[in-house]
Fold this protein.
Amino acid sequence: MGHHRRHGLSVADPRRALLAAVLATLTPALPAATANGIETNAQERTYAIRGDTAAALREQMRTLGPAVAADGGHFAAWTQWQLQWHYDYLRDDGGCRIGASRVELTTTMTLPSWVDYARATPALRQRWDEFVTRLRTHEDGHREHGMQAARAVRQVIDHVGRALDCRTLGEQIDAYAHAAIAQQAWADKDYDARTRHGQTQGAQL
């Protein structure tokens, strides 16, 4: 019985380009959690903004937000998900099947951090709190697309069965995994179009 290692990697979320050239704070990642055969790692980044009016805060996010929008401005928040899958081959007289395997989903959410929050008026702080809550809800939707891709990859690894040779088996898994990622990457774009990047969900300041 032989063993062979395969490793697949893809990064999703083509909605946005590179992070803006601002100093972002990376919060400690939450401990990795494993459920239903999927290991999840979640982390958050923040970028600092300043201002004492809603207009000033909107302009700061448009200038310093994490990625460039189609109109040349920046988004207020950004979520990237990365999916990896690993598996071992087990060979025997009947051909090849999958042995040990692992699916890992890593998500990174970037959100604004308002430096002047404590000095602002109660009314503006309330508006900000509601905005950030709804902005996070929108970004959680992008995170869920990554989880859906991870579930699809986990399912195909668990149910792919046996092939006459390991190369064929690996190609079947990897093709399905990349198709699942492409599908959820499209879902990310459609989600932004339908919600106007969270505006219809109340993520407006």
Q: What stands out?
A: Residues 122-159 form the longest helix (38 residues). The helical segments are 54-64, 122-159, 166-195. Residues 5-201 form one domain.
